[in-house]
Amino acid sequence: MIYILGAGATARETLNFYKNAGRFEEVGGFIEENCKKKEIKIQGKSIFDASSIATLPKDSIFIGAMGSPKRKRWIEEIEKKGFKFDTLIHPSAIVGDSVNINKGCIIYPGVILTCDIKIGRHSIINIGTTINHDSTIGDFVSVGPGVNIPGNVIIGNGCWISVGVKIINKITIGQCSFIGAGAVVTKDIPDNVLAVGVPAKPIRNLDESSWNELI
C-alpha cells in the first residue's frame, strides 16, 4: 500500500492525482506527525499518526505530499528505516525524451517537461509549470503553479520557486533559496537568500527560522 505523508492541501491534491491515474485503491491513507485528525477521513481514507509507521509492513510505500521544505527531515528519517517512495506523474503531464524524474517526486496536472531534464528526489512541480531542455532541478525543490523555466537552468537543492515566477535561460539558483511570487529571474541567485521583484534581487539571507516565517 501507498501512504501519503501529510494531510493538508498538497496531500488532498495528491490523493486526487492517484484517483486520476486509476490508482486510488493503492492508497492506504494519510500519515501526519502529531496527528489530531484521527476521526476525520478524506474521500474515505483514514489519517494515521506517524507512530503507526512502526507497525506497517516493510513493503509499504510512501510519498511526501507536504508543501513545506520541512518534509526533507521526515522523508529522510523514513528512508533510513528502509522504506521506499513512490513517484507520481499526473496523466495530463507531458514528459518528453530523456527526462529523468527521481523517486518521491510529484508532477502535477498540465506540467510540460520537454527533453533532457533532470528532476531530483522528492521535488514537487506544480500545476501548469513548464521546464525546457537541459535544465536541472535539485532535490526537495518546490516549484509553484505557472512557473516558466527555460533551457539550461539549474535550481539547487531545497529551493522554493513561488507561483508565476519566470526565469530566463542559463540561470543558476543556489541551494535553499526562495524566489517570491511573480519574480523574473534574469541573473544568478546565490544560496540561502530571499529574492523578489522584476528583475529578481536578493533582499535578505535565509536561515532555518526564516523559512518558518516564509512558508
Descriptive tags:
215 residues, alpha/beta, eight-stranded mixed sheet, 25 strands
Number of helices: 3
Distance between the termini: 30 Å
What kind of sheet is the major sheet?
8 strands, mixed
Structural class: alpha/beta
The total beta strand count reads 25
Envelope shape: globular
Strand portion: 25-35%
Low-confidence stretches: none
- Write out the strand line-up for the largest beta sheet, numbering strands in chain order: 7-10-13-16-19-22-24-25
Radius of gyration: 17 Å
The helix content is 10-25%
Average pLDDT confidence is 94
The helix/strand series, from N terminus to C terminus, equals EHEEEEHEEEEEEEEEEEEEEEEEEEEH
Give the secondary structure arrangement, pairings included.
Blueprint: E1 2-5, H1 9-20, E2 27-32, E3 41-42, E4 45-49, E5 61-64, H2 71-80, E6 84-85, E7 88-89, E8 94-95, E9 99-101, E10 106-107, E11 112-113, E12 117-119, E13 124-125, E14 130-131, E15 136-137, E16 142-143, E17 148-149, E18 154-155, E19 160-161, E20 166-167, E21 172-173, E22 178-179, E23 184-185, E24 193-196, E25 201-205, H3 208-214
Parallel strand pairs: 1-2, 1-5, 2-4, 5-6, 7-10, 8-11, 9-12, 10-13, 11-14, 12-15, 13-16, 14-17, 15-18, 16-19, 18-21, 19-22, 20-23, 22-24
Antiparallel strand pairs: 3-4, 24-25
Outline the structure in words:
By secondary structure, this protein is an alpha/beta fold. It has helices spanning 9-20, 71-80, 208-214; strands spanning 2-5, 27-32, 41-42, 45-49, 61-64, 84-85, 88-89, 94-95, 99-101, 106-107, 112-113, 117-119, 124-125, 130-131, 136-137, 142-143, 148-149, 154-155, 160-161, 166-167, 172-173, 178-179, 184-185, 193-196, 201-205. The longest helix has 12 residues, at 9-20. It contains 3 helices and 25 strands.
